[in-house]
């Protein structure tokens, strides 16, 4: 079974476009969980344009009460900014089951690459250790590069999250590069499995590109937000979650 963790960033983005609490992020999390989602993902950023620290706290409580996986993603090197305490203090306070470290710069529109661990490995290692000591599983956002995945193991990660943006784009463009891109993801996954790393994946996954990606060797979890939220506009949030759960199950 491949777990579906719903990313609620886009629900928070709509809320933040006005004053008030509409739509209510926690209520939408409940809808996702009631519809069969296996977990909730958020990706707070220092500019707080979508998920904010209070959302992380509220969703952490909800997921703990339901014994559901909570996954907090973000840049471990982004320090405090305004009322944003920084990823590490927020994660150590709220204790999600999983923290996915992502090498975003503060001004990025969205995540668009995995870690270069030749550059960042040494400064990531103590952060990974600190999170693991706190009982939090650590996943690293990675491109499908075998050398880099070997380094992910060396710096102490539990899992990798394969960055699926280029795969999704190749599907959307019906690109001739699709087969080699997916083959590279499969080779990276096989290598991760061989090293004993768990495998997650995410970014721009949708109902069109998931049927192939779900066949990735050893895939344990996908986190999906943008496309699922767009589908929810058409079919309703609960129906969208059911559609993704079924798609992941090959139905
Ligand atoms: C790591 C990743 O791919 C996601 O966390 C993504 O960056 C978050 O989604 P938004 O960019 O839509 O907020
Ligand atoms: N880790 C990827 C994620 O949480 C959601 O990415 P997207 O589906 O919003 O592109």
TrEMBL record:
Pathways per UniProt: Cofactor biosynthesis; pyridoxine 5'-phosphate biosynthesis; pyridoxine 5'-phosphate from D-erythrose 4-phosphate: step 5/5
A single GO cellular-component term on record: cytosol
Chain positions recorded as 3-amino-2-oxopropyl phosphate binding sites: 7, 18, 204, 225-226
Keyword field: Cytoplasm, Pyridoxine biosynthesis, Transferase
Location of the active site: 43, 73, 203
Compartment annotation: Cytoplasm
Family: Belongs to the PNP synthase family.
Record-given protein name: Pyridoxine 5'-phosphate synthase
Underlying gene: pdxJ
């Amino acid at each position: 079974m491949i777990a579906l963790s719903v990313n609620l960033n886009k629900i928070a983005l709509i809320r933040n476009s006005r004053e008030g609490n509409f739509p209510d992020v926690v209520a939408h999390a409940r809808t996702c969980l009631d519809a069969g989602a296996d977990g909730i993902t958020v990706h707070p950023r220092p500019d707080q344009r979508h998920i904010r620290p209070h959302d992380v706290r509220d969703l952490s409580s909800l997921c703990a009460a339901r014994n559901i996986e909570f996954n907090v993603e973000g840049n471990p090197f982004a320090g405090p900014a305004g009322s944003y305490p920084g990823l590490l203090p927020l994660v150590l306070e709220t204790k999600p089951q999983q923290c996915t470290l992502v090498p975003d710069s503060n001004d990025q529109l969205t995540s668009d690459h995995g870690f270069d661990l030749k550059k960042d490995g040494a400064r990531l290692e103590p952060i990974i250790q600190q999170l693991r000591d706190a009982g939090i599983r650590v996943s690293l956002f990675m491109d499908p590069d075998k050398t880099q995945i070997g380094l992910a193991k060396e710096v102490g990660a539990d899992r990798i999250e394969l960055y699926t943006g280029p795969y999704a784009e190749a599907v959307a463009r019906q690109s001739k590069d699709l087969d080699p891109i997916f083959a590279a993801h499969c080779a990276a996954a096989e290598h991760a499995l061989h090293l004993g790393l768990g495998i997650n994946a995410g970014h721009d996954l949708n109902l069109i590109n998931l049927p192939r990606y779900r066949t990735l060797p050893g895939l344990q979890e996908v986190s999906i937000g943008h496309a699922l939220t767009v589908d929810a506009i058409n079919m309703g949030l609960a129906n969208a979650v059911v559609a993704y759960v079924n798609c992941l199950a090959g139905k």
